């Protein structure tokens, strides 16, 4: 499904004039009259509102190159869909030689995901001095984390003090296990992530990223700031998370204090770069 979304994003980039791009579209099968699923469809209209093109893309992410049988099945599927005016198959793992011949015979475009190793300038002439993307582009990430922390749960209506364990069941208001957070441990991990996300953009946090740490990051590719003490209170009543505390029955968690030490992690990263390439023409999609 993720690969389908990526292909749809590429379609949006290639066809900025598209009026509709749908993932998992239902297209009429002329033989049976029933709708059939097409992974990605792209609709383009003329100025007068008439349909100019209805492109269909079947997206495959298999463990091996698509063979002639798999491609033939997809080609036959397209044959029964006369509404589709432009047909293409996208493979994350390439094709066998006979599969490519089969697709050509049925006028189906074959695209494959390939690692982008060619110089950037070959695809983007304006960037004429750039080599392969792994050399041309670097990305910096800054992550605020709780290096260590403890949690204090506020549960009005419960006892003045109580103990909990990470394995303890968390409940919804009706007494059933909480759908999103079935255990206390999973809930507190989600709150830790929530806290980091809320604190990340605050100016007092950003001040801990000193020029010395940035210089170390540039030199080593990674650096961590010294940690500092902090406490963050989260109001969580809207989560409708309940503990079962002996005689008190179900008690809603209204707030959580997170106390400990925060730290910035700075990293220079080189991601993987891929392109969708036409197997026949080698044109970048």
Description:
Helix 2 packs parallel to helix 3. The chain is α+β, with helices and mostly antiparallel strands. The mean pLDDT is 93. It has helices at 2-14, 68-79, 97-105, 120-123, 133-136, 184-199, 203-206, 211-220; strands at 20-28, 35-45, 51-60, 86-91, 109-115, 139-154, 222-224, 228-235, 242-244, 250-252, 255-269, 274-278. The two termini are 19 Å apart. The radius of gyration is 27 Å and the shape is extended. A six-stranded mixed β-sheet has the order 1-2-3-4-5-12, sandwiched between helices. Strands 6, 7, 8 and 11 form a four-stranded antiparallel β-sheet that branches. A two-stranded antiparallel ribbon has the order 9-10.
Fold blueprint:
Elements: H1 2-14, E1 20-28, E2 35-45, E3 51-60, H2 68-79, E4 86-91, H3 97-105, E5 109-115, H4 120-123, H5 133-136, E6 139-154, H6 184-199, H7 203-206, H8 211-220, E7 222-224, E8 228-235, E9 242-244, E10 250-252, E11 255-269, E12 274-278
Parallel strand pairs: 3-4, 4-5
Antiparallel strand pairs: 1-2, 2-3, 5-12, 6-11, 7-11, 8-11, 9-10
